[in-house]
Amino acid sequence: MVRTVRTILTDLAAVCAAEELDRYATTELSAYASLRQLGAQQVVCGYLEGTGDLARTVALVEQTGHRRPGFSLTTLLSVLCNRCITVPFAERSSYNDNFLKRNHDESETEREIRKLQGREDIGVYVPPLEVLETFAAAQPEMRELFAATITTHGSDCRGR
């Protein structure tokens, strides 16, 4: 089994103290210039999947990306919504099944490209309102933009 930073963070969350996990995730995340980079997304997804704590993930990104444009909360929200965080698991499988039916001839290479484009689901579900409240608590002035992002990406995710 290939161990990625995402699987390592998920596993570490179960056995490490919170401070140790945060230190490791911060170090890994600091290596990237933007949350749009696949490696940074893997760090964020692994951290969130391991902790199950969206507010803590938001705080980690704010701390790590302080004054770095590629680490804005709007970018984080887009990344998480692109990975279907606001779509319940039961609904995701039907969307993924529909995608596979439409793309039954998709090669292994094409599936890998989808993963590299950040179109791989996250192993966490958070209701849309809770996502909105968490992000708005961190940046209240961005509430409307956050709400629009959640709505738009939720629709996109359902179209897969």
Task: Characterise this structure.
The protein has 160 residues and is mainly alpha-helical. The protein has one domain. It is built from nine helices and no strands. Helix 1 runs parallel beside helix 3, helix 2 packs antiparallel against helix 3 and helix 8 packs antiparallel against helix 9. The protein is globular, with a radius of gyration of 16 Å. The two termini are 28 Å apart. About 8% of the residues have low confidence.
Tell me the number of strands.
0
Strand content: under 5%
**Could you tell me the mean pLDDT?**
82
Shape assignment:
globular
Kindly state the percentage of residues in helix.
55-70%
Unreliable spans are 94-106
Largest sheet: none
- What's the total helix number? 9
Rg measurement, Å: 16 Å
- What is the SS-derived class? mainly alpha
How many separate domains make up the residues? Answer: 1
Write down the secondary-structure element order.
HHHHHHHHH
Distance between the termini: 28 Å
